[in-house]
Amino acid sequence: ERGRFASSVEGARSGIVLLVPRPMLDAEQNELMRLLLDARVQQLIIFLRRGGLRHLDVNEHLRRGEYKGYAPLHVAVMRGTSSIVAALLELAHADPNTQAAG
């Protein structure tokens, strides 16, 4: 979604539309991608277990950068980090059938 606000996954789970500021979602996605790209498996697991993706849909495609149009799961697979792929699938409930944009 574009603009200053986006729907929260937390709200969707509750059956309501909860809009959160886009920078909040971007911060969650940036932290997720930092841990993923640095292959910090243990820190990623802790981040996910502590609710680090409170509002972000883990299947949302990246909006900028080298991996624009891909979901974090795609990036983990491309980088060959199987333990991170497993963490995204099991802890973040990433959709293995998510298609790349475009």
UniProtKB/TrEMBL annotation:
Keyword Acyltransferase on entry: no
One Pfam short name: Ank
Keywords: ANK repeat
InterPro entries the record matches: Ankyrin_rpt, Ankyrin_rpt-contain_sf
Coiled-coil region(s): none
ANK repeat locations: 68-90
UniProt keyword annotation of Metal-binding present: no
PROSITE patterns named among the record's database cross-references: ANK_REP_REGION, ANK_REPEAT
Protein name: Uncharacterized protein
